Amino acid sequence: MTVRTRTSDEAAHGAAPWWQDAVIYQVYVRSFADADGDGIGDLAGVRAKLPYLADLGVDALWFNPWYASPLADGGYDVADYRRIDPAFGTLEDAEQLIAEAHALGLRIIVDVVPNHVSDRHAWFEEARASQPGSAARERFWFRPGRGADGELPPNDWTSEFGGPAWTRLPDGEWYLHLFAAEQPDLNWNNPEVAEEHEAVLRFWFDRGVDGVRIDSATMPAKDPALPAFGPHHTKATPPQPHPFVDRDEVHEIYRHWRKVADSYPEPKALIGEVWLADPERLAAYLRADEMHCAFNFDYLNCPWDAERLRGVIDGTLAAHAPVGAPATWVLSNHDVTRHVTRYGRADSAMGRSPAQHGAPTDLALGTRRARAALLLNLALPGSCYLYQGEELGLWEVTDLPDAARQDPFFFRSAGADLGRDGCRVPLPWSGVAPPFGFSPTESTAAPWLPQPQAWASLAAEVQQDAAGSMLTLYRTALRTRRAEPALHTPDFAWTQATGPEVLDFRRGDSFRCLVNLSDADVPVPQAHALVLASGPLGADGALVPPDTTVWLHG
Ligand code: NOJ
What we know:
The protein is an alpha/beta fold. Among the domains are: 316 residues, Glycosidases (TIM Barrel, Alpha-Beta Barrel), CATH 3.20.20.80; 64 residues, Immunoglobulin-like, CATH 2.60.40.1180. It contains 15 helices and 20 strands. The strands form five sheets. The protein has an eight-stranded parallel β-sheet with strand order 11-10-9-5-2-1-13-12. A five-stranded antiparallel β-sheet has the order 14-15-16-20-18, with helices on one face. Strand 10, helix 8 and strand 11 form a beta-alpha-beta unit. The N terminus is likely disordered.
C-alpha cells in the first residue's frame, strides 16, 4: 500500500507531516453518491468515486459520521461507533474503502463526537431503563427538576438548536442535551466515558484511519454544579469559566487522545472543531501535546473584504505560530451556507445566518468570488478543507420544501430557522435531470433531498473536460499547488500592497498571489509570469479584473 502525500521515509528525511499542508475533502456520505438506489448516499457510492477524488488532486478525505445512527442530527447522534449505519453499508465496506483510498494515495479522517451520543446508544437505553442515581445514569447528566413537582428543568441552559437543553423522562428525572433531545450529553467525569472513547479511537486507528475530526471539541467538560448561566453560549466569546464551553479540564481529554494518536508507528492526526473567538484560547488546543489542527472559523465567517481578510489571515498566523501548529483554511462545510451563495450577497459574513435567508443573491458574482477565494485558500500556508460539491460550484438550495427538511434547527425553531439542509443536497454527477447520476438510473427512490433542475449545468460530467469550469479550476489549482515547492513551506510575506483592496503576498522567493477585491482592474505586476488565474484577465493578460486571483512566478 502506498500513500502518496508523505511516506514515513520522507518523514525520516525531514519532510513535514502530511497534515501540515494537506488538502482535505469533506465527504457527507448521505449526499455524495448512492450506489444501491435508495436515494441515500452510501460507502459503495464513495468507493466508486474514489478515482474522481484522486484525480481531483486532494490528499485526504474527512467523513462526517458514518456510524449506526437514527440520523436525528445527520449522524452526529451516534448509536454505535463500531457499526456503519445500514443505510451507508457495512464495516467491511468501510474497511475496503479505507484500503482502496490508501491505494490511491488518499488518507482517511473519521468524525468522533465526544460531547454526546444518540439516545439509541446502548448506554442511554440502559440509563433510561435504570433507576435515578444508578451507575448507568452516571454516564450522562441526569438531575431532578426544579419547582414543586420537579416540573422545571434543572437549570436555564438552552440547546444549540433552540429550546431547553433538558428533556424529562417519565420517571421525573431530566437529562442534559446541549444539542437535540436525541443527543444526550456524556459525563466526562465518569472514567468509563474516557475509556470507551479511547477504545473507539483505537478501533478506527487499527483499521487504518489516519486521523479524527473532533466534533464540538470545546464542550465535553461541564461544571458538575451545573450553575444557571443563561442562553448565551458556544460561539460567542464566553465569560470564563463557562459552565460548559472551553473549560480548562477539557484539555486533559485531548492530551490523552494525543498519546493514543502518537502510539501508532505513523502518528494519527487530531483535528478539532473548536469554535472560539479568542485566538489564544483556540491556540491552546493546538499545543504540542494536544491536537494537530483546528478549523479556522474566523476565516469562514469573514466577509469578502480585503481589510477584514487581511486581518483574519494575520490573526490566524500570529495565533498559530507560538504553538507551532499549521493554520487551516476553510470556506464551507455541512453546517454553513455554501460560499457561492454567501459571496453573492451584500452581507457575505457569517457561515450560517438565518437572517440572511431570502436575501437577494447574485450567484454569478458569488461564483466569481468563490473561484478567486479558492486560489487564495490554496496559496496560504497550512492545510485547506474543501466541502463536497464546492468543486462543482454548487450553491445553497434555499427553496427546499418544508416537508423535505430534516435539520433539527428547522424543527426546534418551528421553521423560523431553515437550518442546514440547503448545503446538504445530493451531488449532481451526470445527466440532464434529477437525480443527476446521484442514484443509479434504475432506482425508484428520489434523492433524500430534492436537487434543483438548474444543477444540470453543474454536473461533474458536464464540467469534467470543460475549459473554464469550476471543476477544471479546482483540478488545475490542486495539481499546481502540489507541484509548487513554495506552497509547502511556512514562508509567507505580504508584498508592497498594490492597493488597500488587494491581497498581495509571496510564498518563498518566486511565488506570488494577488487577489483583487476592489471594483477596478489592477495591473499584473511587471516581470511576473502567470501561473494560474481564477478568471479571464483583461488587456491581453495585463490586468486582473475585480474578484479575480492570479498566481504568479517572478
Ligand atoms: C457540529 C457538527 O458539525 C454539527 O453538524 C452537529 O450538529 C453538532 N456539532 C452536534 O454534534
